[in-house]
Every structure is written in structure tokens, then in C-alpha cells.
Amino acid sequence: xxxHLAILPGDGIGPEIIExxxxxxxxxxxxxxxxxxxxxxxxxxxxxxxxxPYPEFTQKLCRSADAVLLGAVGGPQYDQxxxxxxxERGLLAIRKDLNLFxxxxxxxxxxxxxxxxxxxxxxxxGLNILIVRELTGDIYFGEPRGIHTNAQGEREGVNTMRYAxxxxxxxxxxxxxxxxxxxxxxxxxxxANVLETTEMWRQIITAMNSDxxxxxxxxxxxxxxAMQLVKAPKQFDVMVTGNIFGDILSDxxxxxxxxxxxxxxxxxxxxxxxxxxxxxxxxxxxAGQNKANPLATILxxxxxxxxxxxxxxxxxxxxxxxxxxxxxxxxxxxxxEDGCTLVSCSGMGDAVLxxx
Length: 356
Ligand code: NAD
Fold this sequence. Notes:
Distance between the termini: 24 Å
CATH class of the domain at 1-106 and 261-356: Alpha Beta
Number of strands: 14
CATH architecture of the domain at 1-106 and 261-356: 3-Layer(aba) Sandwich
Strand content: 15-25%
Strand order of the largest sheet: 2-1-3-12-11-4-5-10-8-9
Number of helices: 12
Radius of gyration: 21 Å
Bound molecules: nicotinamide-adenine-dinucleotide
Order of helices and strands: EHEHHEHEHEEEHEHEHEHEEHHEEH
CATH superfamily of the domain at 1-106 and 261-356: Isopropylmalate Dehydrogenase
CATH topology of the domain at 1-106 and 261-356: Isopropylmalate Dehydrogenase
Oligomer: single chain
């Protein structure tokens, strides 16, 4: 059955990096991938065309698609708009509309780029971690919340860490399944020694292990996890955690690689439908100059193939092509080092296509 993709180029460098990624997709389709795609605007581009950052046209297309590929949104020309009309609101709206509760943030460091990290090359070379972060619950959304005056007349801030069992189960399922598609190791991160919410988290994730006997489950307290990520990050395969711990750990892990232009991401819902996008923004400072690194977006396409289209072969084919190009010494400006060959955004697209 043909799978339908929605492609949202967005703003800034978005259209340039998407153009290169679509060349890869076209090649896969020509080679037999049973998929088609349609474009729609999001963010500033959508405001310009429809007066709204997530217009009905885009909404309809994304709701009916099997997966969505996004470039990036935002730009200084939209900073004066009313908040509900700003490009970033389009991104929040699509995440909510598609109920994308599971955020996948891989930290992958191709051995050729080991010098870009602030850590010693031997600690990070070949790193490949996937952090699965719950995105719609936890202390970020729990009630009661607010700032009030207490009985002593002092101001008091309140937030509530809260997870329902079903919310933990659905993120647990997605994380176990992701581990099954990788090296079958899952580390659940919590603070079960202090926080009851995460004590329950640990109980549920542990009980679920009987449904995934091929996955080796471990647990780690979040403070230790933060330390282990910089001490010996290659011990991890998949990490699963709640919203607040995941927010912090995924940023920490992404910085292990030192190159924002290389990092893909995905946000999934219960049916496996996902929004795939680079972790970086729209880079207005280099937009329109054919300088942007398209690899994070090309690697996001690989994630889309793996997680929404369940096509591991095609995903690996794309990832291996990227590895090959890096091994050839080709670099865009953001990852350039002495002795390498500097290429443009489209030059990088040419090279990945040739390697494919
Ligand atoms: P940014 O990620 O766009 O840029 C930060 C720096 O990294 C810039 O110097 C940029 O040139 C560089 N960079 C980023 N991606 C690159 C790539 N692929 N190749 C080469 N260099 C790259 O972050 P910012 O400057 O803080 O934000 C710019 C705009 O992007 C803002 O409007 C912001 O709201 C938006 N933004 C969007 C998203 C998203 O669409 N998911 C995420 C973050 C920021």
C-alpha cells in the first residue's frame, strides 16, 4: 500500500535542506519505495500564504498523511507578529493536533566527526544513543500549578509531577519497540528513590519487560544518568524517561556530538505516525546562501523510513550513504575541519545521492 508523506519545507534554510532531502526520497521511490508526497506550508511561509502558521490546508494534509517531514520554521521578519500567529506556534499546533507524545532524539556521532565534540574523541567516536522522551505529561502539564500567597503571607510557586499509568505504558511501549529495532538495551531513567511518581514509573516499565523479553532493561537515577552521559556515553542504547528529565538529558546528549547540523529528531503518536525534523532551527543567518548542512534533515528522513514506514533497509541505506560521504572528507561549513573538502548544501545533496 502506498504510504503518503506530507512535506513542510518551512522557513529560512528549511526549503534548501528539504530540497536536498527530497532528491534522496525521489531516488528511493525510483528504486521501489512505495510512497508519494505532497507539500504544504508551515510557520512563516504559511502565515505569508494563508495568514496562519498552521492553516487548514496543512492540517488536512498532515492528518491524512502516514508521516510528516519538516524543514524548520521561524525568522526575524515574523518576530513582531502577535504570539498566536508566530511561526513557532505552527510547530506547537501540529504537535498537539497529531497527539505526538513521544519524542525521539538520537545522539549519533559519526567517527569522522569525533573532533567536533568537546569530549575526548575516544569517549564519543561512534556514539549512537536514542533518547525517548515523554512529551505531553509530567510536571510541565500537571495540576495544580501556579504562584499564590500561602497562609503565612509568603509567595509560593507550585508545580505538580503527575503521570497516569496509561501515559507511562504508551511511552514504555514505544521505547521497548525502538530498542527492539536497535541493540535491544533499554535504560529507564527516573528518581524513584525520592519521587513517588517515578517510583510508579519504574514499577510499570519493569512489569512491561515480560512483554519484551528480548530487551535488556536497566534503571538509572537521573542524576547518575546525567553524569554517565558525559563519562561513558557509549554504554547506552535507548534511554526512556519523562518529560522534564528527558528535556535536560536530550539536550545534554545532543551536545556530545558537537554538531547541530547533524542531528535528526522525531515525534510520534500512538499509531506510529510521526513528525520528523532536524533538531536545529531555520538558521536565518545563512538562509538562501546554499551553505546549510542538509544532513540532519536527510537523517530525519532515515528515521521516518525506520519508525513510520517500518523500512529498515531503506533507513540504513540512507544512513550508510551519509557515513560514506563523511568518510570521503566532504563537509559543509558548520562541520568543516582542515584537510576536508568544503561543499555547499546542494553539493552535499549531490554527494549523498551519488553515495546512495
Ligand atoms: P538555529 O538552530 O536556527 O541556528 C543556530 C546556529 O546554528 C546558527 O548560527 C545557524 O547558522 C547554525 N545552524 C543551524 N542549523 C544549521 C545547518 N543545518 N547548517 C549549518 N548551520 C546551521 O537556532 P536560532 O538561531 O536560535 O533560531 C533561528 C530561528 O529558528 C528562530 O526563529 C527560532 O525560533 C527558530 N527555531 C526553529 C526550530 C524548529 O523549527 N524546530 C527549532 C529551533 C529554533
